[in-house]
């Protein structure tokens, strides 16, 4: 009979230092399964939604670009609101994990609606896309912000956190691989019995059911061992705290920049992948394989992170991942239209670097939380995660709206032979734009981020001493 993970009698300390606990295998599996499940649906949006809107649903590229841009502006309001709600509430069942349970079914339902293509007039299609796409993003925020914040309450042990986040990201990338394969191939299979648009919807129904089932189970495996700080009724979190942390706490701002850069890389290549392989390479039959090559090698990059952090530390691991992503983007630019094998290999190099980044980013993310706690006296984990979430959402503006707008300006017309200028735009957007983003990110992060492992341990000690002094006062 398995032991009750939520019973404090079963918790194992890894150190005498405050909050240092060992994470059980079932707990790591449950926590990681959340991201696997979320990526079954979220990667459907990241990899294919732009292509779906223009080439299947029939929306103009310029309108899709506008839709993405307006959605990200709403995120700039919605995400901080969600972060402050999380910090202002302390539900009895648990501070963060219950949001996963409550958000699972609504997220699955709206995912299906997003890939549903009602036979409306064009303007009503735009309205439908805007409502469903924005609802999906809001529900994603409702789940993902508390989810990533929960890790800070599971243990303070940096090694355990690294193991947890590395496993989590390996699962997340695996979910992305499954999505990359299933959505185009299963949708194509269903065209024997229905239209391609209907095939996309049915495939999304299948993936949504799997996702919801996993989320409902996995949410109950998360154990919040480290008590959340009590809420001061006279000093509750508010929107101002979001921007105070962003602009006055250096490591928090640099983490925002890092997530912005890494996810812009991913979003650009996800947005442009379908156009690149269909029009520039002329191999639409390779779409699922090309999409998969952005995900599959990353699964092998993530498990390397614990080894790399021991050898070259967290910052060195980040820089290595960025360097590999840049090299792969440059190689992709050098490939002629006929070099399918070279394209796949280039994509694989970028994906391997991206996998390393996914493993290390979510391990290093809690370090600025500790730093902000020491400097401000407030442990606003969800608000820091909100800023990270904003970095990801702003990446979707650059990676989703900008390429789609440039495509429209270059004369792109869906499902027709493209002009030389459009083909050049597709090639440059898929390779040179992510290359530039990664290089800028490397320079900023490499020059200014100085929060190493030794500093974090010292910060944790100072916080524990400060909190103990407060209790005895």
From TrEMBL:
Top-level taxonomic group: Bacteria
Keyword Transmembrane among record annotations: yes
Membrane-spanning segments: 28-51, 96-115, 127-148, 169-191, 197-218, 242-266, 286-308, 320-345, 351-369, 381-402, 432-451
Family annotation (CDD domains): MFS_MelB_like (cd17332)
InterPro entries: MFS_2, MFS_trans_sf, Na/Gal_symport
UniProt keyword terms in alphabetical order: Membrane, Transmembrane, Transmembrane helix
GO cellular component terms attached to this protein's record: plasma membrane
GO MF term (any one): symporter activity
Coiled-coil spans in chain: none
GO BP terms, alphabetized: carbohydrate transport; sodium ion transport
Descriptive protein name: Glycoside/pentoside/hexuronide:cation symporter, GPH family
Native organism taxonomy: Bacteria, Bacillati, Bacillota, Clostridia, Eubacteriales
